[in-house]
Amino acid sequence: xxxxxxxxxxxxxxxxxxxxxxxxxxxVPYRSLLIHHxxxxxxxxxxxxxxxxxxxxxxxxxxxxxxxxxxxxxHFDRELNAGRTDMPPHLHREDLN
Length: 97
Prior knowledge:
Layout: H1 2-23, H2 31-65, H3 69-82, H4 93-96
């Protein structure tokens, strides 16, 4: 889940970076001046954007893809303990002890 959130945040951040690089081509003659004076602020902006996008992707992923996970696992555990679920012999609880 975390890797998916990092991947989504990376894709969106890079897409925004390349879009801005294309749209702000008129600033190319001032590149060294902008990087020297505003480079740390721009880098900080993209870092904060990345972490916010990652947190948003993680929250959305947890909200929509892990819905009712505890209830489903509890139901499976009850069936497994009751012996009604056909499990391969190497996964039975008696064999694990």
